Amino acid sequence: MPDEILNPKALEPLYQPAEEPNKHRLKGGEIKNTRRPSPLIIAQNVRAAVREWRECSYPGASETTRELFEHWFLQDHTVRAKDGSDMAFRYHFCQREAIETFVYLKEVIRCERVTRLMAEFGGYEAETLALGVDPEKDLWAKYAFKMATGSGKTKVMSLAIVWSYFHVLRETDSPMARHFVVIAPNITVFERLKEDFRPPSGGPSIFETDPLIPTMWRGDWNLSTVLQDEAGGVSTGGTLFPSEAMTSLLSPQIS
C-alpha cells in the first residue's frame, strides 16, 4: 500500500480568487489550460458575452455602472480585519462576474424574460428550451445565480443593492429600486444576514466594512435596514427588509 493516499499537489489552487478561472483539473489530475465549461449552453454563452463586454470596457453601460465597476474592481482597497489590522481587499471573480452578468442582462441588453434569454443565448437548443416555459410564469423578471457555499452570495447582494440604489439616484428615468426585500429560506440564514446587514452588536454593516460606496458618494447613501416584525417608519432614502420565509418560493432559475 503506498504511503501517500492523497497527492497534496491536487489541492493546490490553480488561480487566485480574484482572477478569472483559466485552468481546471480533470479526473486523474490532468490540468487543462482553459476554464471549466458549463454543462448549460445558456450559461456558457452568457459567460462569453459578459467576458467580451468586460474586455471592451462595458459598452452601453450607464455612467453610474462604469464608475461603480471601476471603484469596485479596478481600484486598490484596504479594509479592517477582525483583529484590527489593515488588509488588502479584492472582490472574488465569481462575485464580480455575478454582478456584471446581472447588470449586463438588466441594463445593457434589457433581457427580462426567460424566453428571451433562451432565444439570445440558447444556441441550437433555443427553440426547444423555450417550449418548456409557461408564459404566465414569465411575466416578471427573475434572475438567479448559482454560487458555491462560502463564495460570497451576500457580497453579491450588497453589490446589487448599492448599484440599484445609485442607479435610481443618478440616472434619469431609472427602472431600478431603492427599497429591497431579502428573503432567507430559514432562521439560520436569516441570523447570518442580520450579522451582515444590521449586526445585533451594533457594529458596522457590510455597507461600511466593504468598499461598496465611492468616497464622494457617501453623502448620498441613506439606506435603513428594518428587520421583520419591526415597525417601519417613513424613509427618505432607501429601505432594506431582511426577512425569513417559512415556505419555499419556486421560480425558474438560471445557473
As laid out across the biggest beta sheet, the strand order is 5-7-6
Number of helices: 8
Helical content band? 25-40%
Give me the Rg, rounded. 20 Å
* Overall number of structural domains: 1
Order of helices and strands: EEHHEEHHHHEHHEE
Q: Please tell me the overall pLDDT.
A: 87
Shape assignment: globular
Strand content: 5-15%
Distance between the termini: 42 Å
Number of strands: 7
**Poorly predicted residue ranges:** 246-255
Q: Largest sheet at a glance?
A: 3 strands, parallel
| Estimated structural class | alpha/beta
Please write out the topology.
Elements: E1 24-25, E2 31-32, H1 41-55, H2 63-74, E3 77-80, E4 86-89, H3 93-108, H4 114-121, H5 126-130, H6 153-170, E5 179-184, H7 187-197, H8 206-209, E6 223-225, E7 238-244
Parallel strand pairs: 5-7, 6-7
Antiparallel strand pairs: 1-2, 3-4
Helix pairs in contact: 1-3, 3-6
Can you walk me through this structure?
The protein has helices at 41-55, 63-74, 93-108, 114-121, 126-130, 153-170, 187-197, 206-209; strands at 24-25, 31-32, 77-80, 86-89, 179-184, 223-225, 238-244. It has 255 residues and is α/β, with parallel strands linked by helices. It has one domain. Strands 5-7-6 form a three-stranded parallel β-sheet. A two-stranded antiparallel sheet has the order 1-2. β3 and β4 form a beta hairpin. The protein is globular. Mean pLDDT is 87; it is low at 246-255.
